[in-house]
């Protein structure tokens, strides 16, 4: 029986968190950009 902890579980978790945060920020940025463009277009039509 091994007493040492396996570091690869933590490495995999760090990658999952990092990739998940990156995808979330990219989606948030895309939605914010689309909302800003819609507000700009609406302001130009007035």
Briefly characterize the structure:
It contains 1 helix and no strands. The protein has one helix spanning 8-45.
CA-atom Rg in angstroms: 21 Å
Could you name the ranges where pLDDT drops below 50 across 5 or more consecutive residues? none
Which structural class matches the secondary elements? mainly alpha
Which H/E pattern describes the elements?
Answer: H
Helical coverage, percent range: over 70%
How would you describe this structure in keywords?
46 residues, mainly alpha, 1 helix, 83% helix, single chain, 0% strand
Write the layout of secondary structure elements.
Elements: H1 8-45
3D structure, described in words:
The protein has 46 residues and is an all-alpha fold. The chain contains 1 helix and no strands. The chain has one helix at residues 8-45.
């Amino acid at each position: 029986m091994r007493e040492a902890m396996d570091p690869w579980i933590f490495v995999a978790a760090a990658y999952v968190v990092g990739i998940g945060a990156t995808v979330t920020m990219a989606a948030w940025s895309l939605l914010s950009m689309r909302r800003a463009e819609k507000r700009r277009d609406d302001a130009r039509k007035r």
